Write the structure tokens for this entry.
Amino acid sequence: MAYSAGFTPHPRVSYANAAPTGTGSEAEYLEIALAASRDPEKLRALLDESMPTGLDIIDAVEARTSGLADRLTASVWELRLEGVEPADAERAVATFLAAEAVEVQRRTKNGVRTFDTRGAVVSLEALPAQADRPLDNACAILRLVVRHLTPAVRPDDVLSGLHAVADLAPPVPAAVTRLAQGLFDEESGTVTDPLAPDREAVTAAPPTAAVTTDAKAPEGPAA
């Protein structure tokens, strides 16, 4: 691993758009600068072996292009709402999507800030109820695509918006998982693989010492 210069060298590792604290994620990215070129798959395996159980390094590529953070423009989230009937979730989603703006407030280090959550939400849907769930255990699943704007709109902000416009209030905290993040494709409405440019450039440029990894993290506080 490469280190910075100076009296207190640090590993040259940079994280891009880490998930909010308390959420799970299957799509976290970081860049690691190496002192010499290494085979990405061997490096992935070595890093994966050093990780605690449940934290998996699932992919690594040589960073042959710049601007990884610029390729993370949207995220796909799944919210599991225990105690919420799917029909109630569907009605709340319809009300949210029909609104021109849905303002919520969040306390920041600079005080309470008001911002629009509707403008950041590209899509939001309530998925069909799971066939194997107990009949007496209501549970709704929401799937949403959120653009990375400033200020950032988080899944809990969208839940606050659903409560504001449709009085949707899960009795227990939602289980939130990021399923993907990357460049949002306007034509297809999908979030694309941010490592694709590096894969495509594999024969177009000489290798570099930087490796980008895609980390799959368990639900819980983000690292």
Q: What stands out?
A: Residues 207-223 have pLDDT under 50 and may be disordered. Residues 86-98 form the longest helix (13 residues). The chain is about 20% helix and 35% strand. The CA atoms of residues 77 and 194 lie 16 Å apart.
